[in-house]
Model the fold of this input.
Amino acid sequence: MLVLLAALISGYVAAQEPKNKQIEIRVSSQCSMCKETIERTLAFEKGVVKANLDLETDVVTVVYKTARTTPEKIREAISKAGYDADDVAADPKAYNDLPDCCKKPEDQQHDHSGHKH
Amino acid sequence: MKTFISAVLVALLIPVSLAFGQKPLNGKVTSTEPDGKSVPLPYANVYWSGTQEGTVADENGRFSLERKFAGPAKLVVSFVGYLNDTLLVEPGRHSLQINLKKGAELDEVEIRERMAGSFISSIKPIKTEVITTAGLQKLACCNLSESFENNATVDVGFSDAVTGARQIQMLGLAGIYSQLMVENIPFTRGLGSAFGLTYIPGTWMESIQISKGTSSVVNGYESTTGQINAELRKPWDSEKFFLNVYANNEGRAEVNAHATHVLKEDVLSTMVLAHASTQMSRIDMNDDGFLDQPLSRHVNVSNRWSYEKHGVTESKFGFNFLYDERDGGQLTKLSSDDAVQNGNYVMKLVTRRAQLYDKTGFIFRNLPNTSLGLIFSGLYHEQESVFGRNEYNARQLGFYGNAIFQSQIGNEAHIYNAGVSLMYDDYDEAFADSTFDRFESVPGIFAQYTYNPDEKLSIIAGLRVDHHNRYGTLVTPRFHFKVNLFEKTVLRGSAGKGYRSASVLAENTGMLVSARQLVFREDFRMEEAWNYGLNLTQTIALSEKRDLVLSADFYRTDFINQVIIDLDQSYDRIVLYNLDGTSYSNSFQVNAEAALFEGFDVTAAYRLNDVRVTTAGELRERPLVSRHKGLFTMSYATRFEKWKFDFTGQYHGRTRLPLDVPHLEHAGYGEYSPDYITIHTQITRKFKKWDAYLGVENLTNFMQHHPVLQADNPFESGFDAGMIWGPILGRMFYAGIRYSIQ
Done:
């Protein structure tokens, strides 16, 4: 009986268009603060169920509802937070507002004294 | 190491922080895992070397810290089990990341306790509880008076059943014995006392600092039982635009809007804060014919400016204007004019208040720890009111000025402050057919020395001498110490004197909404009291990231003179005189705060107040002050605070009722009022640009059923709306949204 039910359910699920999809987006994250910023941005993005950024690979894995958002919109949201997302470049204004440690190495100030930017 | 906490005191001593309106420094503290990965380090201590200005990083290692100096400054970052790091931060720098290395400097590091919505600062020598923005948002409504609902130190209650005025208590004594400041400028002196708390809208505030016992002499001779300082949102780092709309099921609506504009980056910025609220519905839950809350219209506008000349001077200035109109009493059916025609009891009160302020700091770049701070504020306050058949009209013109010089003797272990101040207040007051015109002019000088050899010990000794034009010379000595007994055990103590001059009518609206006859037996002298306190804070690590913070404190206040408002002589009169006998308060409090798991915080507190005063010739419990109080709060937030659930429960013990009030007996009350429990809860959902919240106040629906005695005969003897010990409003639902553009 249970087996039959399980088979029915799985058959039903398989027949449906999958509601949730998972994509991987390469982002220009630098540090754990970026991870926080990007995950926070995606947490409040419409249609995003889950987002996890791996700082080793700079790849963010996003689970989203296909009915409510698209990969393009998700990349756009990351760009607006100041980060490159695959081939979508970071929004320049948002990038400028990022804290120093989140900027790309070539724009960072490494000494402890700091400079005005 | 000893260098940094040294002028810890400075912040206290120069509470203005010399007003350096720079952009705050944002940053992140990380540590390196054995595998070389960089991970956030939560709850590290971050502070400016040689000052007391600091913060604690949040659970993600992030912090935002206001700048204390205009020039380059050393920032210290420390955490248990890690090596401290000190780095020089140039003025233009707004963000940085600090990586701490594991180390064994255990006994050198100081811990600061932190809770999501509030924490106890352990760097400051004076025990200071801080309610953060997160804590302020736990109760969305409405102004400063509601901000203490989930705090065990401060009690809030209605002062009477007609005007809607709320008053606080600290250490079991009325709020007038504590000092209320806004950004370290005394806020409610004189006429503002009764309604002052409602003059600061909740969304305007960034944080509130509460300290028990006498505070630094730098701020004046008041603050006998404690000090409350509200920090408002800053022009240079607030949202570009913020909007809050609130409504509740009892017909209260409220709108708050703030807009910020940076005219020149790092130099000049400004901000406009606006608030409007109204009580539209006629609510009479207890069916006594009196409105539980007056109908009201309230407008409050503030314009704040911040100017900085790099490394030389910084200035914060602005003004605010307030208009408040209330109609209460027997107005459940009729309009105010018709009700007067009809012979009903009507309360009408209109307040206009304008305030202007400037805080300017000058830095001596060549001399370490040396600066000069100047504070000025001007106040105009006007109140026109009618309570039944009595008119009460009052006007106050006030000026406050304070100049504080700070420097060091030899090295940073010895910091001193010295300065001069002037308080000037001109009052015109008329009640019924008596006038109470007077003016007070109080020039003063003060000096304070801070010894801070290392972070384990700090001692502050201060003395001020003021000359009051009516009361003569006032000498105010104060002393504070803080010592870290063990790594996670902090002991603090304070002793000092406090004074204040009473404005009895403005401070006690309960007396005005009563048929009791006011008997002024003599001229009042200055109120004068000693306050002593001891406080022990112990931190226990529950896990690597979670702490349990236990604290216990005891404070005693001994009055040398107090203006006694004697309700115990007879139900038909209030007798006012200088203390004749003893008056004291003993307050003992224990607190436990813990973050039990990720996102879940719990607080439990118990407080015992033993407050006694000589009235009607005998030492008795102070009436309408509860002996026992319990507090329990829970707060749970999902990741990124997408959802937030807050719960606050309070136990209020019984209070002694005034003697010889037959109508209280008729209402079924004996010697004491009953005890009761109140519960507040709120759910908040955060979206990308806005938040929505929904909550309930007074869930148990407990109410004081006869807040107005003799409500049927308000012009007969026995009528009294000032005998308040419990909630007047029942269960109340509210909802609102907050919208912001960064």
Summary: The CA atoms of residues 376 and 401 of chain B lie 4 Å apart. Residues 1-22, 104-116 of chain B have pLDDT under 50 and may be disordered.
